[in-house]
């Protein structure tokens, strides 16, 4: 007797809404956007078509600005972001995405389509709360 497993993909659990910030923005400007949209991360937009996306999460800001006693008005997002951002394909099984997150120490990642355009963002929380309960 074989066990039937339900495939739940990243696209099934990702958030389609995400926010972009320019890398030249100050940390204070980025924090204002984060506070307004109540998010824990921002995607840093490409500067041109051959550039890569970046990502900045609150823990980056806490480590690089707050703990280092640096001014959020004098530090740009480029100085604290992770670039290139590790991206996830929407058709990836959430089990593999979760394993990748664990191996790379990620908490969230942009979801990109075949053309490299961001279509959403996924987090460990999304995979656990939206996905794990639906797995058989």
UniProtKB/TrEMBL annotation:
It holds the Pfam family CBS. InterPro entries: CBS_dom (IPR000644), CBS_dom_sf (IPR046342), Diverse_CBS-Domain (IPR051257). SUPFAM superfamilies: CBS-domain pair (SSF54631). The keyword Glycoprotein does not apply. Residues 81-136 form the CBS domain. It comes from the Bacteria. Keywords: CBS domain. SMART domains: CBS. The keyword Nuclease does not apply. This is Putative voltage-gated ClC-type chloride channel ClcB.
């Amino acid at each position: 007797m074989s066990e039937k497993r339900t495939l739940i993909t990243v696209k099934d659990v990702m958030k389609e809404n995400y926010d972009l910030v320019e890398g030249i923005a100050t940390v204070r400007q980025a924090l204002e956007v984060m506070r307004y949209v109540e998010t824990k991360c921002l995607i840093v937009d490409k500067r041109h078509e051959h550039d890569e996306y970046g990502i900045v999460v609150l823990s980056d800001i806490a480590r690089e600005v707050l703990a280092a006693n640096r001014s959020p008005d004098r530090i740009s997002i480029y100085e604290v972001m992770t670039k290139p951002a590790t991206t996830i394909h929407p058709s990836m099984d959430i089990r593999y995405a979760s394993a990748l997150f664990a191996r790379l120490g990620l908490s969230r990642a942009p979801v990109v389509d075949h053309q490299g355009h961001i279509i959403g963002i996924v987090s460990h929380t999304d995979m656990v709360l939206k996905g794990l309960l639906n797995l058989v």
